Write the structure tokens for this entry.
Amino acid sequence: MTNEAKKSELLKLDRICLQFGERQVLKGVDLSVKEGEVVVLIGASGSGKTTLLRCINLLNTPTSGKISIDNDLIFHADAGGKGGSKISKQDVNRIRSKTGMVFQQFNLFPHMTALQNVMEGPVVVKKENPAAVRQKAMQLLTLMGLEQHVDKYPRQLSGGQQQRVAIARGMAMQPKVMLFDEPTSALDPELVGEVMKAIVDLAATGMTMVIVTHELGFAFEVADRVVFLDQGVIVEQGPPEQVLLHPEHPRLKSFVGRFHESADLLRPFLEARMKENG
């Protein structure tokens, strides 16, 4: 049995449905994520990928289905939606303590330094010791390459630096899984690479992650598994080499068509990855 096979199932979505009015956005999505796995969700606009991500920490409440994190059933509503509207604020906060979420916009507190932004959650919400939190926050900001910017305010940081502070802030709460919703879409092109590198470095620490992105090259580099959603259902998933370079579903073939144009540029990386993995 491989080490990958031994890893426990950390996140499980079972038959997740979500309906806005007459529109069925998610149509019975099943998804499991193992501890330490990086799963990237791709798909066209309106496919349901961001909605699915937001369901994991109940920013969107599913109409029906089950969500479990670390063997804790955090949400359950039957096909009639029973139970989904009755979840308490306390339960929502408990659920969100298991997930760290990084949005398209950075959402930093403008009146706080980078260090203060990262420390805020553990100190105020979790009532942890400020000295210990400060030490951990410094470690996270260093991991994000921001050790020289800890005392700067958001307005003094570039967009890429602000997004890396946001990642450190999410990690400071010690979540079971990190969720990323298009983390580079609000950045100028020259800043995208530094945030991608920060997420790749975070993946190397063994953090479990679910990432929504339109950057297929990034998905190829960081993902253990790529999941393609179309019209509210998962139509294909697998290793990035399979899904992005050898797609089977016609909709996926069309979606990654533009990626194939630059696929030759990735061949050296692909060969190196395959060599590392034996």
